[in-house]
Amino acid sequence: MKRLKMDREQLTTQQQQNPAEFTEEQYKSSVALLENIQRLEREKHELEFQASRLRGSVPRFPVATAPPQTAALLKFCLRIRTEQNQLKDIKFDFIPGKDSADALSNDLIAAGLLEMKNIVVVAANITKLVENPSQKKLIFPLGNMPPSQLEEKKLIGYAQLNLIE
């Protein structure tokens, strides 16, 4: 590559100093040589670019890495009683690594599907199921009723969170 660079510099100098001494054949030859030099320089830059990309994608030291985990979509169903004492099923999706239990609970409140007083307990139980999806179902107290009125089987004062397959 250095030789080609020197040839180009010499050729340019000769053309500038003695333009009349160049025959048409020499001129065509010099143009072809310059085009060849430019092509080789483009190829060199392309190879350098590819090499830099390869260096960036290959670790320099052997590192034990876990295989990339795909964020599996988790589907939930929250069964909860409304203030009118009606059971309501609220279905929603959760993407681990992207969604958070707190943000999801806030979204349920913003949509009018969950009461503010239940936000912490619902978020905590979403987190439990996300961390242990083999559990599939949780029934938990909401803490908004006196203990004498609680009925777990009828979900009075309780909520049920299911992980749907």
Automatic annotation (TrEMBL):
Residues 11-20 have a biased composition (Polar residues). It comes from the Eukaryota. It catalyses: L-threonyl-[protein] + ATP = O-phospho-L-threonyl-[protein] + ADP + H(+); L-seryl-[protein] + ATP = O-phospho-L-seryl-[protein] + ADP + H(+). Residues 1-20 are annotated as: Disordered. The keyword RNA-binding does not apply. InterPro entries: Kinase_OSR1/WNK_CCT. One of its GO terms (molecular function) is ATP binding. Residues 74-131 form the Serine/threonine-protein kinase OSR1/WNK CCT domain. Residues 30-57 form a coiled coil. Residues 1-10 have a biased composition (Basic and acidic residues). Keywords: ATP-binding, Coiled coil, Kinase, Nucleotide-binding, Serine/threonine-protein kinase, Transferase. Pfam families: OSR1_C. Its EC number is 2.7.11.1. This is non-specific serine/threonine protein kinase. It comes from Geodia barretti.
